TrEMBL record:
The chain crosses the membrane at residues 7-30, 50-73, 85-104, 110-133. It comes from Petrimonas mucosa. Pfam families: DUF4293. Signal peptide: none annotated. This is Putative secreted protein. Keywords: Membrane, Transmembrane, Transmembrane helix. InterPro entries: DUF4293.
Length: 151
């Protein structure tokens, strides 16, 4: 059953979270120098200024979970539960990202410059995961209706 449309949704959600984990999330200006915020850390002049390994861990789990969920096609309810957990994980990614920016901004005096592609990808992954949940639910209802007809 790997040829279903929700498989494509979950695979794309996994790729989106992987992109969010490995690409820059935002860039700032600090005393004329560019500071790049990535999931692995905050970099100034190419050197690591501050490590944000927890954000990377949330992003990595958020990219692996939809991929693992693909192979649970025989247990659709478990697929839905994992997908809902993944949506909460992606929301947590944004909340922690916002917390990190809030924590470093007042003390460093950073000026926001650009938003990276990595900041947008979790929103796309949330939408794709939601679409996958809807399709998995529709499959579950169809299987239950067939089961009801067999009795």
């Amino acid at each position: 059953m790997l040829q279903r449309i929700q498989t494509l949704y979950l695979l794309l959600a996994s790729i989106c979270m992987l992109v969010a984990t490995v690409t820059p999330l935002a860039s700032f200006l600090y005393n004329g120098e560019t500071v790049v915020f990535e999931a692995m850390g905050i970099y100034r002049n190419g050197g690591l200024e501050s490590s944000t390994w927890a954000l990377f861990a949330i992003g990595a789990i958020g990219s692996l979970l939809p991929f693992v969920t693909l192979f649970l096609y025989k247990t659709r309810i478990l697929q839905i539960r994992f997908s809902v957990f993944n949506i909460f994980l992606m929301i947590g990614f944004y909340l922690y990202f916002g917390f990190l920016i809030y924590r470093i901004n007042p003390e460093a005096g950073l000026q926001f410059q650009t938003i990276g592609i990595g900041s947008i990808m979790p929103v796309i992954a949330i939408i794709l995961t939601y679409l996958a949940i809807r399709r998995i639910g529709a499959d579950e209802m169809m299987v239950r209706s067939f089961h009801r007809l067999r009795k």
